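Q: My labmate handed me this sequence with no annotations at all. I'd like to see what the chain might look like in three dimensions before we decide whether it's worth expressing. Could you predict it?
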Amino acid sequence: MKAAFVIFDQMTALDFVGFYDPVTRLKSMQIMDDFEWDICARTPQVMADRGLRFQADVIAKPLSDYDILFVPGGYGTRQLQHDSVFMDWLATAVTVPLKISVCTGALLLGAAGFLYGRRATTHPSAYKELAAYCHTVVPERVIDEGGIITAGGVSAAIDVGLHLVERLAGSPTRTRIANQMDYPYQPGQT
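A: Here is what I predict for the chain of 190 residues:
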């Protein structure tokens, strides 16, 4: 199984890292030895919205060969959703079986046409904007629509990362990884 972690200028670092950390523990904790990933971008290096720099592994290549696509949010999504070059690149993921976003990354999934007819969520400040791309905006931390999973604002990245862990490897694995991370949140809590 191979995941594409998309990065871009002005993304929110916690959106990315919050998801990346629990999901990549599937490999580092020897739960799924076949789990692999690439950091994918349009440019070799990107800068998050607070100055943190990230290096891409794969640059401007089609995203169609992955099993999972992950898109973080951040201020950069507001312009990228209207950037035809970026959106054409993201649309190469049309055949990817599982697409996931955190925060305003949902705007990018929506602009690519992936949310049409579905329920979705995002950061509360972007609910109105997201409504143009999906059937229903739902104010919850994680919305799982089968082939599309969206998560709410920034810190929900950890929640959706653990949600994916559970989907791929079961509830006991989710608990094991959450305990390793010393993360107390469980679904159904407020």
